Structures are given as structure tokens and as C-alpha cells.
Amino acid sequence: MSRYLPALIATLFLFFGCAQKRETVTPQTSSMHKEAGEHKNIVSFQGEYDYIIQALYFREHGEFAKSYTLFHALYKKTHNVEYEIEALKLLIGMHHFKKARESLTSLVKRYPKNPELYRLLAIASLKLGKTEEALESAKKALALKPDNILNVDLAASIYLLQGTKEAYEKAYAIYERYYNRHYDDDSVVKMASILLYKLKDADRATRLLEMHSKMRECSQKVCLFLAEIYRSQNDLDHLAGIYERLYDVTRQSEYAQKAAEIYAYQKRYDKAVKLLEVSDADARLLLAIYKQTRQFKKAAALAKKLYEETDDPVWLAEYGILLYEEAPKKDDPKLLSRVVKILTEAMKEGVDDPLYYNYLGYLLIDHDIDVKLGIQLVQKALKAEPDSPFYIDSLAWGHYKLKECKKAYVEMKKVVEKMGLEDKEIKKHWNEIQKCRSERK
Question: CB 3.0–4.6 Å: which of 177, 329, 346, 358 could bond 381 by disulfide?
């Protein structure tokens, strides 16, 4: 079946429906589009359907001149202005604006209550640079059908093209009248666009969109526009609130994630956690916040869950670290054995990161489990990041544990020069190493 056939069939129903209505009506009594003010009765002729099929076929295949000729012939034979409207659309599409304008100027006199003719005349006039004439035709179409959004858009667009504040206000007023009857998202967004980009009144645009979103709902179209405004103003409080409202309406996790990222940046961790726990939007961010706020028990459970879901050994390593961090008694032999086993397994499964090498190494050193292996792991971390004061501190502490006080002092001095003595653990290590050095002299 040809790809254009479904569309063709749908269009044929429209035309055939009109024709079938005409078949049982005599020219003396029938008149389609009476409200459009047609002066001639519509008649049928044998072969009309064939004309329609051919006209639609040519239009579908880009042979617009042939399609135009057939639609125009259909109008001449039937006096059905809908055929001529299709013909004139094709004429305008082929950029024959002058010919289209001439035909339309005559037709609107014949059918003065047909808004589509005025709309097409406005377009043709506009293309010929006759802005005032186009505006008058657009206003007539709008007056005939004020609830047709095509008429609303056309009249407002012509005002916007004029480029003056007065014209912008008139365009806004057209949308406002439509909005006051329909309260729809599209028109309120267009109103806000005029306020923001043409009249440069961001506050008024914001108030309008906020009012609509609270009166109706925070639809994506409206609230994403609000988000754009708040983002441009760096108004993070309102931006986060909009994303949270969008999540409430759509249940799309991306909005919860955006809101949570802002809350985390603002250090409003309670709001971020609450939203992330409800939405399951970003487990990694939630884990990072748990760690930041020292909720190690929750963090450990989440890391374990991530490992089980992904088989990524990084989460196994995180789980091991968090088990240790959450433990009230960190020198418990069973705990230490379990943590060492988990971290070792994570490395066997492919974890290759200096952070985890150093963590396991320092654990082995600090708890006197296997100081020499601990030093080897720390040295592996230092190969990746040789200037890290934290890794150098671990190395120094390893030398201290082996009573290699001179080596410990040399390394620890580098740490103190970089970090000072504000950190309690660094201060403790420095004091112990200095004492060791003095005793060994």
C-alpha cells in the first residue's frame, strides 16, 4: 500500500461526506456554508470523486500546480468554496502571492463571512509586504472566529512584526482575550513570551505563569518556561520549587533529580534526601548526601543495593568502607576482618582506584593487621597521585608503625607543610612521629 494512502482516505472522507450531502439536494434548495454567505448553490457533477482523488494524489506527490488546477476546476464546477480554498493554499505554497491575493480579494466579497478566506488573504498580503492590509484581513478573520487559535496567532503575529511597544501590547491583548475564555497553556505561554522578550517585563511574565500554574496545574509547557526565567535570574529557590512541582505532576524522575541537585548545592540536604528517597531519581547523589551528612547506615544499605543491582565492584568497595564508618566500635576484629575481605574482593573484581587502595592500606596499617601490605597498597595509590597529602600521611604512618621513624618524619613533614596541623589526625600523627624520631636519635 502506498504510504500516502491512509492520509488520502482520511481526506476523502471529508470531501465525500460533503458530496454525499449534496447528492440528494436540488440546486434550488441547497446551500452549504450559508453562514459563509455563499451566493451560489453547490452542485455535484459526474466524475467529481475522480477529480478529488487526482488532486489529492498530485498534492501528496509534490505536483502542486496540477493539484491546484484540479481543485480550482472543482470549484468552478461545483461552486463549493472549500475546493477553491484548497487551490489557494497551493497557490500561496507555490509563492504565487499576487495571483492568490487577487483571487482572494474577489472571493471575500462573494463570501464575506468565511474566516479562512480572510486568513489566506492576510497571509498573501503579508508576503507581498502589505502589512496594514494583512492586518485588516487578519482582524476580520478574528472577528468572525475569535476562538480559532489560527486567527488569534495570525493577528497577534502581524502586530509583533511591527516592532513597537504599542503593537506588542496589542498582540498581548489579543492573546489575553482568548486566554480569558479558554485558560489554556499555549496562549498563556505566548502572553508570557511577549512580556519577557518583547516588553522586557520578567516580573509580569513570572506572575502570570505562576498564577496560571497554581490555578490550573504545573504543566511542563508552563513550568519549564518558568524554570527558564528563574534559571536566567539565578533564582535557585524558585527553580528548585518549580522542578519539584513538575515532578509532582509528571512523576518524571529527571525533575526530582534537578530539584535535588539544587537542594544539595544549597546544603539543604533534608529536602534533597526526602525527594530522592521518594522518587528514586538519583541513587548516586543520594549516596553522596548520606555520606556528607554522616548517615552511614543508610549509605551502606544503598551501596549494597547498588552493587546487587549493577554488579559494579565500586559499590562493593563503597559498601565495605561504609560498614566501617558506621560501626561504633571500629577496632572490633570481626568488623575489621569483614571490611578487609569486602575491599579485597572489590579489588579482585576490578576496582582500580587510588582512593580504595589508600583506604584499605591505611586500615591495615592503623589497626596493625598487615602493615607491610598496607604500605604496598598506599604506594600503589601514590603512583597514581604522588602529591596527595592524605596518601603521604598514610605512608608516613606505615613507616611509623614499622618504627622507621626517620622515613616517617620525612614523609610527614611534607604533609604538615601542605596541610598544616588543623586536622586532628594529622596533628596526632605528627606528634607521634616527632616523638618517635627524638627517641630514636
Answer: 358
Task: Quickly list DSSP for 384-434.
Answer: H-TT-HHHHHHHHHHHHHTT-HHHHHHHHHHHHHHHTT-SHHHHHHHHHHH
388: left (phi over 0), alpha (psi -120 to 50) or beta: beta
Count helices and strands in the chain by DSSP H and E runs:
24, 0
Residue 343: count of CB within 10 angstroms of its CB: 27
* Interval 18-40: pLDDT, tens: 443 333 333 332 333 444 445 45
Residue 269's Cβ-side half-sphere holds a number of Cα atoms within 13 Å equal to: 12
CA distances from residue 360 to 217, 301, 402 in whole angstroms, order as listed: 52, 20, 17
What grid cell was written down for 77?
Answer: 464546477
Burial of 352 (0-12, 13-18, 19+ CB in 10 A): exposed
CA distances in angstroms from 404 to 321, 382, 398, listed in the order given = 28, 19, 9
Nearest to 123 by CA among 147, 93, 146: 93
**Spatial CB neighbours of 264, under 8 Å, sequence gap ≥ 6:** 272, 285, 288, 289
In eight-state DSSP terms, residue 36 is G
The answer to whether the beta carbons of residues 285 and 264 sit under 8 Å apart is yes
Side chain identity at residue 313, one-letter code? P
At 342-384, the pLDDT tens digits run 999 999 999 999 999 999 999 999 999 999 999 999 999 999 9
| 294-311: b (≥16 Cβ within 10 Å) or e | ebbebbbbbbbebbeeee
Q: Which three cell numbers stand for residue 387?
A: 602529591
Question: How many Cβ atoms are within 10 Å of 432's Cβ, its own excluded?
Answer: 16
DSSP codes, 149-190: HHHHHHHHHHHHHH-SHHHHHHHHHHHHHHHHHH--HHHHHH
Q: How far apart are CA 373 and CA 394, in angstroms?
A: 12
Integer CA distances (angstroms), 201 to 9, 161, 164, 193, 194, in order? 48, 19, 15, 10, 9
Name the residue among 129, 49, 62 with its Cα closest to residue 90: 62
**Rounded CA gap, 421 and 427, in Å?**
5
The neighbour count for residue 285, using CB atoms within 10 Å, is 16
